[in-house]
């Protein structure tokens, strides 16, 4: 029996004697799939997380951890042996759709998203969350040479280029690991935020960790799927920083120092995301992620231009582009 039939049978058990309609709601970069269940005038979301590839336990744990702080789906029923969860429905309007169709709402929506972010960062019960430690941060950086350079660009780094990458990675990690640590959602961006009441509804939090205070803000403002002018990002970052200081979040007391941390955290994330997008394309056959690379590369290049310690990475990106000009290393001009 296939997964869809198993899911339909399980949903039928949750609504005995009631007719229902089950339709695809969304899929994400993992093996998880989501379906909207309509029963009369009410709707729920069913998560299908195949146990061989996915583990529902972190989702359940983090949902319970955040339930009193922010708007996350309520877990209405669960069968972890089969990998099924029945969740409350937070609606079908993502931040990405709302911001694309009505960009004039951006300041209000991002203001509410940073309020929710601060509420998450105030979470004190962190003992059972993984650490965003050097091992994990380094693993993510290594996705870039393994998947972006080797698979996407089809280039093998020489010893000198490898040494440059090692030097830059060491600088990035030094900054990231020195930042204050808080609850980190890890994918806090426009595809995982729903326009809802209360706003926002927050999804895809199962990979939460304890890590650098600027990480989720980078995910939110330097989003791979929608781009804003740097002046606008700076303004929103200042507004977050002011609210975070008032709330007692351990941000740097000087905004210039905070923004430098924000940008260096962004460099780590952009390097990781380029590797992940390449892996999704070449390992998992999700070619659409290649179209999202140019925005991420633009973020990375601009940060490298601003910081002397990162200039050598910018030079390396130029070298790689010259070696493989047809890929253009994701430039946007």
TrEMBL record:
Record keywords: ATP-binding, Nucleotide-binding
GO MF terms, alphabetically ordered: ATP binding
Record has Nucleotide-binding as a keyword: yes
Pfam families: APH
Record-linked InterPro entries: Aminoglycoside_PTrfase, Kinase-like_dom_sf
Superkingdom of origin organism: Bacteria
Record-annotated Aminoglycoside phosphotransferase domain positions: 22-247
PANTHER family: N-ACETYLMURAMATE_N-ACETYLGLUCOSAMINE KINASE, TRNA THREONYLCARBAMOYLADENOSINE BIOSYNTHESIS PROTEIN TSAE
Record-given protein name: Aminoglycoside phosphotransferase domain-containing protein
UniProt lineage: Bacteria, Pseudomonadati, Pseudomonadota, Betaproteobacteria, Nitrosomonadales
């Amino acid at each position: 029996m296939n997964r869809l039939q198993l899911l339909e049978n399980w949903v039928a058990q949750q609504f005995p004697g009631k007719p229902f309609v089950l339709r695809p709601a969304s899929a994400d970069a993992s093996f998880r799939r989501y379906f909207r269940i309509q029963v009369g005038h009410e709707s729920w979301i069913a998560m299908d997380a195949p146990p061989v590839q996915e583990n529902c336990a972190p989702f359940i744990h983090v949902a319970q951890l955040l339930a009193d702080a922010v708007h996350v789906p309520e877990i209405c029923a669960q069968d972890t042996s089969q990998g099924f969860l029945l969740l409350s429905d937070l609606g079908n309007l993502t931040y990405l759709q709302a911001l694309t169709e009505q960009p004039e709402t951006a300041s209000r929506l991002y203001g509410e998203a940073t309020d929710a972010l601060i509420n998450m960062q105030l979470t004190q019960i962190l003992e059972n969350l993984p650490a965003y430690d050097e091992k994990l941060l380094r693993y993510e950086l290594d996705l870039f040479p393994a998947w972006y350079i080797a698979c996407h660009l089809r280039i093998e780094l020489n010893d000198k280029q490898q040494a440059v990458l090692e030097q830059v990675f060491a600088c990035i990690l030094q900054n990231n690991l020195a930042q204050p640590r808080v609850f980190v959602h890890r994918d806090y961006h426009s595809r995982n935020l729903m326009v809802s009441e209360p706003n926002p509804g927050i999804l895809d939090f199962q990979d939460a960790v304890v890590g650098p205070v600027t990480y989720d803000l980078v995910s939110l403002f330097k989003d791979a799927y929608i781009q804003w002018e740097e002046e606008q990002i700076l303004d929103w970052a200042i507004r977050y920083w002011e609210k975070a200081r008032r709330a007692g979040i351990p941000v740097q007391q000087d905004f210039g120092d905070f923004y430098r941390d924000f940008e260096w955290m962004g460099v780590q994330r952009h390097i990781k995301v380029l590797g992940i997008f390449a892996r999704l394309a070449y390992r998992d056959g999700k070619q659409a992620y290649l179209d999202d690379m140019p925005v991420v590369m633009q973020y990375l290049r601009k940060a490298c231009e601003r910081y002397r310690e990162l200039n050598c990475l910018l030079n390396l990106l130029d070298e790689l582009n010259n070696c493989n000009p047809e890929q253009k290393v994701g430039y946007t001009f």
